[in-house]
Amino acid sequence: MNKPLVIWDAGHGGSDTGAHAFGTKEKDWTLEAALYLHNRSKELGIPTHIVREKDITLEALPRTTIVKNSGATFCISCHFNAFNSQAKGVETIYSIFKGSHDSKGLAEKIAYAISNEGMDFRRVFSRQGTNDFDYYYMHRMTGKVETVIVEFGFIDNEGDYDKLRFKEFRIKLYEATLRAFCEHTGNLYQLPNSSIDVLDEYYKVQIFAGSLSGAEKVAQEAENKGFETFIVKEKK
Q: How far is CA 78 from the centre of its chain?
């Protein structure tokens, strides 16, 4: 394999679900993000690699070994946040050590690009751990690969989730990430070859309200026809 410019990391996976709220598991959306960004990078002719392509468990050492051995210049580690249901917005995290390719600048570009697509801007930061090392193992254990952790939003925050639950909106955030990456690295960015319906406004369609068993039956019928569904519990 030729050395990639970037390796995309889908955070968590397998037995490690990551954050979870409103029936959503972080590991599923991170895999969606990394696969999308990897495939779009190939479409743009950017040398690219990916840490995992399916739902498998990867502990810290094997995950970071894949990144380190890839020979990539950059790693973008995809995540969705959770805290106390009150925090919201996009965060990006860079190493405490100054890299030769300005990973702080890349983290800033990505965060602002995602914010411009409709997510609140929360912060861009680094975090020091013990013994003057990085706090996050994705920074600490990936060798010379300059890693930026991207937290697209908080899935346990109702406001963030109301946006993120729409795949079209998540795609906008992935595209913003790729566009910022291309700007930072000097690669040509172009819109996807395939048409993606990206909307500025979203509307809800409710087709059932009743018992849990009834909701599950209707949801399954809708999913069998290709629709994404979710079940919300509300007070009468």
A: 4
Each residue's pLDDT tens digit, 143-153: 999 999 999 99
Q: Report the domain count for the chain.
A: 2
- What's the CA gap between 124 and 137, in Å, rounded? 17
- Please tell me whether residue 10 adopts helix, strand or coil conformation: strand
- Domain of 125? 6-185
168 domain residue, yes or no: yes
Structure tokens at 8: 């995309």
Q: Identify whether 214 is part of a domain.
A: yes
Give this prediction's pTM: 0.82
What is d(CA 189, CA 175) in angstroms, rounded to the nearest whole number?
A: 10
8 bridge partner residues: 50, 76
Q: Mapping DSSP to helix (H, G, I), strand (E, B) and coil, where does residue 82 land?
A: coil
Q: Is residue 192 part of a domain?
A: no
Residue 231's SS3 state is coil
Q: pLDDT tens digit string along 186-207?
A: 999 999 975 444 444 445 677 8
Cα dihedral 212, 214, 216, 220, rounded to 10, equals: -170
Q: Which two tokens stand for residue 233?
A: 């519990």
